[in-house]
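Researcher: We plan to redesign the surface later, but first we want a full-length starting point. Tokens attached.
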């Protein structure tokens, strides 16, 4: 009888786990970000980029590589798709809200791009909308270069 109870308990726990996984994957809540939205494969190419913060009033990627701004005719409002998401490799390197609140907006970052577009694991939802996928840069080091 003990084996039957153990088997039933294992089946019950497995079913609950499957239901929770199913709920996460097929969550119909508007704007829900799931693990399927995160990029998975990161490039082995290490890069150093400079980015500036764009304070959009929407759910979207809000960091623009400054190389685009070298063109005097560049219009950020017409080229919002050039913006990227940032993702810190660890909390020690993370650009936080304090930096942005103090007017810091341009940073030099070292790291790598993910090979596919997605939504950063560090993305903080500001609206109920789900942002569109964009390039994601995972950085290991961040240095403030302009306030």
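Model: Full-length starting sequence:
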């Amino acid at each position: 009888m003990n084996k039957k109870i153990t088997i039933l308990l294992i089946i019950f726990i497995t079913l609950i786990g499957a239901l929770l996984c199913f709920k996460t994957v097929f969550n119909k809540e508007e704007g829900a970000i799931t693990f399927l939205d995160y990029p998975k494969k990161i490039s082995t190419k290490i890069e150093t980029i400079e980015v500036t913060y764009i304070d959009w009033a929407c759910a979207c990627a809000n960091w623009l590589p400054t190389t685009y701004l070298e063109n005097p005719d560049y219009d950020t409002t017409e080229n919002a798709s050039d913006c990227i998401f940032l993702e810190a490799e660890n909390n020690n390197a993370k650009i936080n809200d304090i930096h942005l609140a103090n007017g810091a907006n341009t940073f030099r970052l070292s790291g790598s791009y993910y090979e596919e577009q997605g939504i950063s694991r560090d993305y903080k939802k500001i609206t109920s909308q789900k942002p569109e996928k964009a390039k994601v840069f995972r950085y290991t080091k961040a240095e403030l270069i302009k306030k």
